[in-house]
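Researcher: Please translate sequence to C-alpha cells.
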Amino acid sequence: MDIAGKVFIVTGGASGLGEGTARMLAAKGGTVVIADMQVEKGEAVAKEIGGAFVKCDVSNEADGQAVVAKAVSLGKLMGLVNCAGIAPAEKTVGKNGAHSLGGFTKCITVNLVGSFNMMRLAAEAMCKNDPESTGERGVMISTASVAAYDGQMGQVAYSASKGGIVAMTLPIARDLARNGIRNMTIAPGIFGTPMMFGMPQDVQDSLAASVPFPSRLGTPQDYAKLALHIFENDMLNGEVIRLDGAIRMAPR
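Model: Translation complete:
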C-alpha cells in the first residue's frame, strides 16, 4: 500500500505508541484521524499533523461509528491502528481479597472489545473501497503485548485482554481475505510511553537493562516504523510480531 493520499484511523493517537504512529503516517503523506479520550492533547496533535480528532471510547459503538464516518468523509480509509488501552495491575487474590471483577471486566472491555469494535466498523467501511493495484482494500494493525505470552504477577486482566487480541488475529485475517483486507498484530515489549515515564527513574533504568539487545526502552518511533512496514508489505497478514529486543518477562 502507498500511504500517501490515504486515510488512517489511530486509536489512542493522542499519546505514546499511537501518537508516534500518527505522526509518522502523516509525515508519509497520510491523513490521520486520531480517536482518543484525551481531548486537549488529541486536538493538539491532530492540528500539528494536519489530521482530525474525534473523542472516542473505543468500546462504545456510537463513538466508533463516528470515528469511521469522519475518516470516510476525508477520503479513502485504508488503515486502522489500534493503540488505545489500559494496563491495570491486580493479583488474582491479593491483600484485599479476590481480584475485582469490575476491574477485570473493564480491562477486557477497553483492550479487547474496544479493539474488535473498531476493527469490525473500519473493516465494514474498507470493504466498500475500490481495490488498490495489489488487490488490497485496507489494512488493520492491533496492539497486543509480550504480556500475552509472558504475563507477570498482577497482570492477569491485562494478559487476558492482550491474549485475546493475539488469538483473533488469524481468524479476522481469514474472515476478511476475500475482501482484500489484511489484519496484523504487534506485541511490544517494554516501551517508553507516558505510563512507563510515570515510574521512578531507577525502575525505568532497571527495566531497560533487562532487554537483551538493544538494552533500552522501545520508543513510539520503533513501533511506528514496524506499523509502516506492515502497511507497505502486502505479504504480511494474519500474524503477530513481537517487538521486544528478545526480552522474556520474569514472573515479577
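Researcher: Any highlights?
Model: The first strand starts at residue 7 and ends at 11.
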